[in-house]
Task: structure prediction
Amino acid sequence: MTAALSIHGLMKHFGGKYAVDNLDLDIPAGEFHALLGPNGAGKTTTLRIVAGLLKADLGSVSIYGHDTKTDPIAAKEITAFLPDDPLLYGKLNPIEYLEFVAGLWKVDATQAAKRAEDLLKWLDLWDNRDELIEGFSRGMRQKAALAGALIHEPKLMILDEPLTGLDAHAARGVKDMLVDYVKRGNTVVLTTHILEIAERLAERISIIQKGKIIAAGTLEELRELAGRGTGEGADNGGRTLEDVFLELTQPA
Amino acid sequence: MSGVSGNRGIRAPGSLLWLLRHELRLAWRGIGGKRLWVLLIGGGVLWAFIHLAAFLLLKSAAALANDPERSARVMAAVIAGGGLAFWVITTLKLSQTIAHSVAALFDRGDLDLLLASPLSPRHVLTARALGIAIPTLLLPVLVLIPVANLASFFGLLHLLAIYPSTAAWALLAAAGGLMLTMSLVNLLGARRAKTAAQLLGAFIGAAFFLMFQIPNLFGRERKKQFSEWLSTHTGAEGWFGPESLLWLPARAFLGEPLPLLLFLVVCVGGFWLVVHLTHKRFTDGAQETLVGGRTRRRADDGKALRFHTGLARITIVKEWRLLWRDPRLISQVLLQVLYMLPVMFIGFRNPENIHFVVASCVFIAAMLAGNLAWLTIAAEDAPELVGTAPVAMTRIRYYKAVAACVPVLALLVPLALYWLITNPWNGAVLLVCGVGATFSAALCQVWNPQQGNRRDMKSRHKQGNIIISILEGMGSIGWAVLATGLASAWWWLIPVGLVLIPIGLGTAWIIGRPKRSLGMLS
Result:
């Protein structure tokens, strides 16, 4: 089976410090995967390399079998990347923004217009469709960016802290949408500091620290791994992901 | 609550001086880095030279004391010249203080923090207003203060009035800028006022330049009439005569007691009054900008959405929308055209200068295209979106360059076509060299993509890659030189142009190759 995302031996340094250090990660298609890690662990750098925004020093990344170095256009066609603070065009309204994004991903104009209408209605931005984005609140901007990420129906969605700034209703809507999106056979890779979201949504979780994956698996597998470290063995079913995360990432 | 400053001294946290120190520290760090040292050393050397010039000037002025008749004549000229300079520079300062007032109100920085603190809003505004006044001191401190510094050596103690007058002048400019900006906020609301104030500031700056060009536009007869009118009004009783109230500020700087007193009262009083009257509106305006005005455009209720096809079309239209909806950028770009208008008129009035006009048009086309291409390519608002799109970045950059070139060609081509009919050779030269210069400047940006911010357009040459700027300039000058050579039949200029253009463009293409091949943002 082709992996949705396959990362091998990825290295990236800034100055004298490795932000990503020989990182390996395989995410099968149709999985909801959470990438967790403390601040500065290398999550965003890894995701930016996958999205084609940063060049890796070494290693390979492939998306549904398309190598991002040798076949970047094919890889990008099926990928959407939503950064934590998406930069939008303040002087465009959301419809003009979505028209541009659809144009970039070569979505058929009629299809894109229909999809844009559905997305804006679903994200509660339809009544604001004629307003310039510069007047939007943080949450509205996040929704507009999310609509942009969804308009070309990517097979792989990479989301860096996607729920930042969203109200409870919108956050719930986005979470439900992501679960439904994965059920339809697509793949989501998400980073978040809200561990409860990863605990509830993700099928598998990878924990990254100092540029390396230090643990990966289902929540149960991570619990067991953390339990082994503390000598508690399998008797740790009540532990939350937060406990497990803190256990695994605690300074040596 | 009267504010936290209480009676703990003028430098206590929360006091006016404390706030002013905070403003100055931020402004100082804004200059920052290695540039600061270059500016300080360069400025110091320049200031020393100006002191030397002031020394020689004062020596001559002191010598005049023995010749009362000549001294009176010189003094009248100094008052009129100084008075005129005062008003011209005041206008430029006003343009500067409007820009700073807009920044103080809209580019929030720490304004939210300050207004949320228990400090008096009037204190906050006074500190901001003083922060606006201080940068306007630069020119007078550079040019006038050396005169005051050396005046006592020559016994010209009345010139010590330059010190308080200079400070008062800065307060006047700050009060003027702040008052105009706040009046616009009152009239138009915070969001529209921002745009209006930016336009006002830009055009006030240009107005004097254009006013001084007016005589050049007159014919011989009109010029004569204007000279007669001027000599009538510069007579003893005229509006611009030596006793005119217009020159009162110059008299204040020269230390005449009554004008000095009046000037200080007007400036300091005006500043106090403006701060006193506008502090409440300033706070309200700041809150309005915090809430953020919603810009509602047309509503097409009930109509189905229609998207257009074709990446080229979508990208170009998007770039035009972004340019068109930013009036500040439009004003900055149009100002470049505005500055060229007098040159055009000279050309139209005197056909013998037409080659000069052709060359100027070619150069301005290149400058406009370079700026617009920088805005569309380097100042991309959402580089991550474009970077993750399944399209070659270079292709997008070419579309953006087209978006930048079309408005320039829309201005240039009609002019060239007009000349093609009336003066075919010059029309053809303008068409070929103008189009070439426009595309050359845009290509330099395509080949050497940089990352910038829209608001930095005016300083793009300073902030970006200096080599790219030089190469872009080399190409533009090359086309202008070629146009001059062809239009004026100065054949020796043609090879100069033909050498400069490929050097500029070729080098820009070569040095941009590694960055282009990367196809990524970094």
The interface with chain A takes residues 292-300, 304-311, 314-315, 318, 321-322, 325-326, 381-392, 518-522 of chain B (CB under 8 Å). Chain B has 22 helices and no strands.
